[in-house]
Amino acid sequence: MEHGPAAKLEKDNASALKTKLGVKLFFVYAIIYAGFVFINTLSPSTMEIKVFAGLNLAVLYGFGLIVLAIVMGTIYNWVCTGYEDRMNKPENNKDEGEGS
Amino acid sequence: MIYEASPIAVTLFMFFVALVLGISFYFARKTKSAAGYFAAGGTIHWAVNGIAFAGDYLSAASFLGICGMIAFYGYDGFLYSIGYLSGWVVALFVVAEPMKRMGKYTFTDALDSKFNSKGIQLVAAISTLVVSMCYLIPQMVGAGALVTPLLGLPHWVGVTMVGAIVIFIVATAGMTSTTYVQFLKGGLLIIFSTLLTFYLMSNGLNLKPKEDYHEFKTLEAVVDNGTVSGVLDGYVVKDQKKIKDTTFVSLEKDNIKTWWRLKGTKLEETVSIENMANGEKLYNGEPKDKGTFFAVGHASKVIVNGKEVERSGSLGPITFLTTIEQSEIVRFTKTSFKQNDSKVSVWYQNVTSGAKIMRPGLKFPLDEESTFMQKLNFISLMLALFFGTAALPHILIRYYTVPSQKDARKSTIVAIAAIGFFYILTLYMGLGAMVNGVLDVESSNMSAPLLAKFFGVGLFSIISAIAFATVLGTVSGLIVAASGAVAHDLMDKFFAIKMTDRQKVKAGKTAAVVVGVIAILLGIMFKGTNVSFLVGWAFAVAASANLPAIIMLLFWKKTTAKGITYSILVGMISALAIIIVSPSMFDKYGFDPLTAPFGLDNPGIISIPLSFITLVIVSLLTQKDNAKLESQKEATA
Question: Number of CB pairs < 8 Å for A and B?
């Protein structure tokens, strides 16, 4: 069977930790997104409330979801890079095969 | 509207096409292997891949469809931007790295990495083809909509041109040329959309958006029991039609018949198209070439800091939005009816408060009087947008073009930042089109390019050429995904046809030509439908067919090959079935949407859980398969 990536991958010891972190962050974002959908569905007039600098909740929540995705993504990358630097040092991969 | 080709537009368009073809020629010489053709050899830099992701993802649906929907319905169009962007969170946190780790060229590789199952190979390839086709249709429709004003050519010519160019891009250098075309267009789209937004805010809001903007007339009428019996100013009453609570009146003056809306004792001018029984089509009572079918969209009240003004002057990013929220905008609402063997479409003035425009409700009925089904429809759409991105085959294959998992992750973050920034701009561009007298009521898809035209033919030409490149970039990605499904998943894996590396590339190129031709035909058939609406369906099918399989394979050890196979089948078929019998499709077939057997337009809320449940039940029933697989692995170890 010829499966496996087009480019050769190094062994990744941080894979499990990164997955755990990814799932946690996913749930945090999903809850905030669900909140947005439910306010729109159940009480759309709430979205008219002015929250900041004359902007209403609809605009701020919408922009907030976009900005939050960028911020959480950056944090995730920063933490994951830290895991990889710590756990994928050459001595940690001694006697290990390729792939994970 | 009547569109005339401008020499600058034609020159710029030709330049873009030449550039794209040049890129394809350049990389064609380097693309000899299957890894090079399907995955650009896994050598693309993460930053380039990130912007190429944006170029791939920011399709006609994002630029043309969302801006158009915001221009006609306000904030509701922006909900698509939010949903599309949020979906990237699923891609980054859950899917990106495992997909990179498990796959080779296609999404099917990743799903099948553990099992080597014929069932998975077949249904995942079919699902890739179905999702790619659902996504291709709106892109081709967008291409046709663009070419009309840009080059003055008919819709079908635009669709055929895009199809031909894209087939050339993909058939020459596959994923490598596709990546650089997407990178180029993604970068340019973001830069020039920012420029357009800057112009828009500098211009502010004006009661009369431009000097030659049409002045809508209001006439005093004599009304008896809701029927108009006379009008002044030389108009003669010819016909009347009552639609629910609104009366439309046809008046004749100088042998030209126009439609008016009765409001109290006043008649308000509308925009109309009349399809006569003899095949003639009249725009505001005259043939199209008379040029009386004007662009619309303006503010009826501009309020800045509580004061009513004629011009707001230059505005900032926040004050642009707050000024619209305080002001009153005239939208144009469509209604259609039959009158004396003619089919009449009327767009009447609908004065809407800015507060209503800046909150949900104009497109998706969500207020107290809305039905349970309407609310469910909205939740279903937002669910599909959230879970659809991470299941789109043409997005997933981009994870195979970078060297490592780390690069896959980093390129996803670049993509989120670029796409997120662009989506914020869509709100400004859409609202700008709404108030600057540029809207073509026949095609919401043209709102953003026509807004650019408001600021000069130069900007219009650049924006239109970039929008055209946008279609090229996305369609190329989709055709690479579809050709991979045919040549790699079906021919190589499922049918086990013995092919050399060179033959695999040839098979991929042939598949690209066939898929391209089918896309051209479908693009011509679906002319006039809002492209973002159609992409919503592609997301629903992807989220229903593919995502449950990806998620469960990653996080549930009991997942079996049969579980994945049946879950893809059930997700795909149920999503498509709900779409086929949906009210929107009934409308498209020419039937009354209220007679549709199922009230949902967006299938996600039913089909996604159904696909998950199928996977769990079938997997639990076929646990023996996994045990057999384990023992085989142990025996070969």
Answer: 167
- What's the confidence (pLDDT) of residue B144? 79
Main-chain phi, psi angles of B448, to 5 degrees: -70, -50
Q: Tell me what pLDDT residue B223 has.
A: 86
pLDDT at B272 (0 to 100) = 92
Strands B281-283 and B298-304: what pairing? unpaired
Is B62 buried (19+), middle (13-18) or exposed (0-12) by CB count in 10 A?
A: buried
> Alpha-carbon distance B72 to A17, whole Å?
46
Tell me the residue length of chain B.
637
The reported pLDDT for the residue numbered B104 is: 65
Q: Residue B116: which region, alpha, beta or left (left: phi > 0; alpha: psi -120 to 50)?
A: left
Total residue length of chain A: 100
Quick check: B379 and A76 CB within 8 A? no
- B274-282 long-range CB contacts below 8 Å, 24 or more apart? B274/B342, B274/B343, B274/B344, B274/B345, B275/B342, B275/B343, B275/B344, B276/B341, B276/B342, B277/B341, B277/B342, B282/B257
Q: How far apart are CA B600 and CA B377, in angstroms?
A: 6
Give residue B588's identity as a one-letter amino acid code. Answer: K
The reported pLDDT for the residue numbered B3 is 61
- CB of B404 within 8 A of CB of B100? yes
Position A2 scores a pLDDT of 43
H helices of B289-351, where? 317-326
| Domains of chain B as residue ranges with CATH | 7-204+372-433+444-630 (1.20.1730.10), 218-357 (no CATH)
In the predicted structure, residue A99 carries a pLDDT above the cut 50: no
Contact A7 B420 (CB under 8 A): no
Does the pLDDT at position B233 exceed 80?
no
The helix (run of H) or strand (run of E) holding residue B140 is: helix B118-151
The SS3 call for residue B353 is: strand
CB contact under 8 A, B375 and A41: yes
Instruction: Kindly report the pTM of this predicted structure.
Output: 0.87
Q: Name the residue facing B409 among A3, A23, A80 (closest C-beta).
A: A80
Nearest to B89 among A4, A59, A69 (CB): A69
Confidence of residue B637 (pLDDT cuts 50, 70, 90): low
Q: Do A22 and B94 touch (CB under 8 A)?
A: yes
- Note whether A22 contacts B100, CB cutoff 8 Å: no
Per the prediction, chain B carries an average pLDDT of 86
Tens-place pLDDT, residues A54-63: 899 999 999 9
**Rounded distance, CA B540 to CA B571, Å?**
9
* pLDDT confidence of residue A39: 94
What are the boundaries of each domain within chain A?
A: 15-86
Q: How many helices (H) and strands (E) does chain A have?
A: 2, 2
Per-residue pLDDT of B110-167, as tens digits, reads: 888 888 889 999 998 899 888 888 888 888 887 777 777 677 778 888 888 888 887 8
Per CB-CB distance under 8 Å, the chain B contacts of A35 are: none
Residue B129 has φ and ψ, to the nearest 5°, of: -65, -45
With residues binned 3-state (H G I as helix, E B as strand, rest as coil), the percentages for chain A, rounded to 5, are 70, 5, 25
Contact B366 A44 (CB under 8 A): yes
Predicted complex ipTM: 0.86
What are the b/e assignments for B594-623, b being 16+ CB within 10 Å?
A: eebebbbbbbbbbbbebbbebbbebbeebe
Mutate to test the interface with A, among B406, B412, B636 (most CBs of A within 10 A): B406
